[in-house]
Amino acid sequence: MARSRDLRAHQQRLSAATWAVLAEHGVAGLTLRAVAERAGCSTGLVLHTFPDKRALLIHARTLLHERTGARADAAEASGADPLAALRAVLLQAASVSDDKREEARVWVGFLAAALADADLAALHQAHNRAFLHRVRRLVAACRPEWSHAQAMQAAAALIALVEGLNALAAVDPQTYSAAVQETAIDNALAPVRAGAS
Questions:
Q1: Which architecture characterizes domain 53-193 according to CATH?
Q2: What is the mean pLDDT of residues 143-164?
Q3: DSSP string, the chain
Q4: The pTM is what?
């Protein structure tokens, strides 16, 4: 049992190190050596868990999906009605705090790497589509009279706005402050809100 706990602790330490290196130095700075230095271990120990940089990227993207998915579940559950739930889900995805801007930098780095790697792109698409499905479902709950295609188009536009804001705020948090992002999201929700009871 102690060995299992040690392995989990080692994996968590490497996860945190991978995340920190990606957030600070981007994909170009993500190396096995940099992760080992950040984790305070040898490169050999990193290789035991992640055989290459690609495995580190996949792990970081999966971790991001798990983090944001858990937050989205909590945000959705906190909504008093479908519109409040939709707004909460979108705001939790926005980069309105330091830790969320760090996530946005990791997301942008992964997206850049995915442009040149079909497997990374497929992983990104799967995670993005899961988010799209959630937002479409919430839009449809707010506007039950809309067709599936209308709800999907509205969901895609809302996600494009949030992810665009994330990318911009990752490098310019002063211009794309939390208040600016929140106002943009609220404005974009106007067509959905118009039909909400």
A1: Orthogonal Bundle (1.10)
A2: 97
A3: -HHHHHHHHHHHHHHHHHHHHHHHHTGGG--HHHHHHHHTS-HHHHHHH-SSHHHHHHHHHHHHHHHHHHHHHHHHHH-SSHHHHHHHHHHHHS--SHHHHHHHHHHHHHHHHHTT-HHHHHHHHHHHHHHHHHHHHHHHHH-TTS-HHHHHHHHHHHHHHHHHHHHHHHH-TTTT-HHHHHHHHHHHTHHHHTT--
A4: 0.84
